[in-house]
Structure formats: C-alpha cells, structure tokens
C-alpha cells in the first residue's frame, strides 16, 4: 500500500508534467506559426512585386506630384493596353470624327491635375501613368482583385451597401453620352468606402454578360491611399467577374494623350458657397472603327476602349446613367457619414449642392442630342437625394448628393419604397450590375 503522502506527490508530479508538456506544445505551436507567417508574407510580397512589374512600365521620365504621386512618362507603345494579345504590335489609332452638334462653348471651367501644376509634362511619344506602389496593393482585399470592382451577386442593390442618386435614360440605342460634372472633396469615412460621380454606358444583363464603360471622378482611400478627387475610368464585359479594371491597371483602355494621367488628382475643386469647378466628359462610339472614345475637358482626347473588349457594346448601349454613388459599410451598425457629391442635399442648389448639367446622348447618326425623357432616382432619399430640371443655359441637369447619416437617414418606409422602385427598374432593364 502506498501512503497518502506518496500518492499526493505522484499526482503533483503528473500535474507539473502535464503543465510543462502543454506549455512546450503551445510554445512549439507559436514558434511554428511565427515561422509560417513570415513565409506567407514573403510569398505575398513576391506576388505583389510580380504584379507591379506588369503594371509599372519602364519610364522615360518621372514627375513628382505635390500630392505624393509619381507620374511615369511611358512610351506610348509600351503602355499596359498593348499587353493584350489582340493589340500587341499595334499603335494607337488616329482621332475619330467628333459627334455632330458638339460645342466647347458650354461654360465649362478648365480643370487640371495636381501633377501638372509643376509645369513639367511628358515628352512626345509618351503618356503619363500614375505609378502603382506596394502600399497600393497591400490595401486591396487581394492581389488578384487589385484594381477591380467587387462582383455583386444580389439583384437588389439596397442590400449590398452601394447607394445611388442618378439620372438615366433607357429604351433606345445609345452610342455615347456627354455631361459636365462639378468636382468636390466629399468626406469618405472608411478606407473601404468610396464616393464617386460618373457616367455609365451600359448593355447586357446582370447575370453574366453585363458590359459597362464608366468615367468620372472618385475618392477611394483603398485604391489611392488618400482622399483627393481623382479622374478615373472603368470597364467590364462580364458583369465585373474577370474582365476590366480601373484606369490603366490592366490591358484594355488605350491612352493617346500625354497631358492627362488617368487616376491622378483633379485641381481645383468646388467649395461650399465658393467657386464651382466642373469637368466635361464625352464618351462616344467611333462610327468608322466601332471603338469607344473618351474626351476629358475641351477637346482633350484621352484614348479609347477597343471594340473587341466587349460583346453587347460592340453594337451600342441600351442605357445611359449619370450620377453619384457611395459605399455604406454601416460603421457601428448605423448608416455611414460618407458624403455624396458636396455632402449637401439637392435642394440647396447652385454653389452648395453637386450637379450634372448639359446632359446629352449620342444617337445612331453620331449626333449629340439632349438626354430627353430623363428619369431620376435616389434609392435612399433621406440620405442622398436628387432634383432635376431644364433651362436654356444648362439644358437637362440635376442636383444630387447628401451627408449620409442624419436625423432622417434612413427611414424604413422610405427604404422599402425605394427598393420596390429599384426592383422594377432592374427587372425591366435586366441589367442590375450597372449599379456598381
């Protein structure tokens, strides 16, 4: 028989041994994790640098911008577009015929970009490209999705965090669109939210083959690392699944202009009760070659989206949309305070609210005509609203925007009404993904 004291000693030794074994095991596990994580980080960094080598082309000259950007002057034939198999060995096309009825005398202010205020410019035979950095890519949800919009799978856009105040036309064949948009610096409260104002040219269905061409200004801390309003473009031919990207972050858009950098900050910006500054954008389909061209400001051709990038837009668009969009991540469980436009409601009018003016579309005859039968919609009008009008100077126009979270944002019954209206539009047009 073992004494009780001896048994207590054995039990104590077992407990100590068990504790030591557990501690050693935990220590070994932690050491293994610490060994594994640096390896994963190294693999990610290697992948990022491989992608940067594809995106950032050799520069003939580099210009330092006051906002921190580096603008690389890249030989035109070495730009990312010509990585595309169908463009390799080609050179940019000559400018197309401008749409009939186009006029530069619409009262637009001439906006420039911060990088060009130094007086430096890119030499002939090159184009300016905003350099992409490791930090840019590290902010993205994944290296594979960098520079791309998130694929939306729900038909009801009120449930995915994207909110809009837009004017749109549908029911005809559209070959382009034009508008002047004033530029602001709205507050964006989260790295993973954004605010934008843009033109969409749309064709196809939401299921798998949506085609869009998009251009405007946006504030996106995730994409750019700051809150400057920036000139941007986007395209997709398969509902944002695998094709398309922002700006020149993939092969597709062919840039022809050496004075405008897509993705660069716009200056000056509008101020509340102060100066109002807008950009004029024109997108149209070249009747001769079928490519979609983009013009920024008065007569400055930026470049074109080749027709072969698309399926439905090879022919024409079935809808044109103008307006604002934000992402609402509901911080703390309540509506975001990210602003749309100027951050003020449409009813405040000129000098206070954001606007789109001189809304036009391009018809089958390559002629600019007023965007008649324009419908307007705000899917959360207590957060961001819209008011349209027509006059002799501004033609068709609307004010839009808002502050986001406020005592009236959102009201449940108003949301339900908006969801019903959105669902009707989505089912009618069979093209939900343009809300992205």
TrEMBL record:
Keywords of the record: Signal
Database matches in PROSITE patterns: NEPROSIN_PEP_CD
Leader sequence segment: 1-21
Region spans: Disordered: 82-109
Domain Neprosin PEP catalytic intervals: 156-410
Keyword Signal recorded: yes
Name of this protein: At1g70550
